[in-house]
Design brief:
This protein is of the alpha+beta class and 309 residues long. The chain has eight helices and 15 strands. It is elongated, with a radius of gyration of 31 Å.
Length: 309
């Protein structure tokens, strides 16, 4: 009898031991999960945050970049360069081939191009007080990084348009006051084509795009792209040229051959002003833009409604 009791007590002790071991394992597992979910995030270093911010900001930039629409060649380089090609002469066009025109020499040389920093900075003073407590779901930085990436893309687009407007070889007034017509664009196309270029891109402000949409001369075959919200809305074609609109440009219409426009950029440099105690997230990127040949661009100035001419 005593033996049976002893054996039963041993079995109970073993079961209790097993349960205790399982409880300990479960407890350790729960502690590890809680640690990974809550404590580990609190222990992120600023280097960790910087790597995360860098990726998210560049993702937003890639989503909003416009250089693929507006220039023929976009290059990333490691070191800034102040030289881009400059052409003179007359490129070969299909019209020359059809008419059997003699080939003229076309020469390329270098041109000095001014660098611009299209970067941006963000004040982290509120976020750095307690990142995990003040912004536990990352909403603040998600929105901030998205806007920063978009803003850099817009600054790049602005630099492209400003450079084209400043360097355009041909400047024309609009035929009507306050509005661009398809006839203005076709005249600009003819002027560029006379130099041997093949204009393929038109940029204007949204109001002028709406005016063109009312004209029969605009091809609306890709009208659905008007619904895209990338800041550079497609508005159809005039004479086989793609038309885009953006709020960046005002009182101006650019018509040009984008194959003769290039942009060169250094890699993103994303850093905290002080890695031990940051106050600002800083983004630097040097950008160079130039038309290889200014004759490939026409700038149409929209005449003011109150102008006397």
């Amino acid at each position: 009898m005593h033996v049976n009791v002893y054996n039963k007590l041993q079995i109970i002790a073993i079961k209790v031991g097993v349960l205790r071991t399982l409880s300990q394992l479960l407890l350790r597992r729960m502690i590890k999960l809680l640690y990974n979910k809550y404590v580990k995030n609190y222990m992120k270093t600023y280097e960790d945050w910087l790597a995360e911010f860098s990726k998210r900001l560049q993702d937003s930039y890639r989503l909003n970049r416009a250089d693929g629409k507006f220039v023929g060649l976009s290059r990333d380089i490691e070191r800034p360069t102040g030289l881009l090609p400059l052409g003179s002469g007359k490129p070969i066009s299909y019209a020359d081939i059809d008419l059997g025109t003699e080939i003229e020499p076309y020469t390329l040389t270098g041109q000095e191009v001014k660098p611009y920093n299209i970067g941006i900075s963000y004040d982290l003073s509120e976020w750095t007080k307690a990142p995990e407590l003040n912004d536990p779901d990352g909403v603040l930085m998600d929105i901030a990084l998205h806007i920063m990436g978009r803003n850099i893309a817009q600054r790049e687009a602005y630099l492209i348009m400003k450079t084209l407007a400043d360097r355009a070889n041909i400047r024309l007034p609009s035929m009507e006051k306050g509005v661009i017509r398809s006839s203005d664009i076709i005249v600009a196309e003819k002027r560029i084509s006379d130099y041997g270029f093949a204009p393929d891109t038109v940029i204007m402000e949204p109001f002028q795009r709406y005016q063109l949409l009312l004209e029969e001369g605009v091809d609306l075959g890709r009208f659905e792209e008007l619904m895209r919200n990338d800041g550079y809305k497609y508005a159809g074609k005039v004479s086989n040229m793609d038309i885009y609109s953006t709020e960046i440009i005002k009182n101006l219409c650019l018509v040009y051959d984008k194959d003769y426009v290039s942009t060169v950029k250094t890699p993103f440099k994303i850093y905290f002003d002080n890695i031990e105690s940051p106050k600002f997230l800083v983004v630097d990127r040097i950008c160079f833009v130039a038309p290889v040949d200014p004759r490939c661009v026409v700038a149409i100035n929209i005449r003011r409604l109150d102008s006397e001419d």
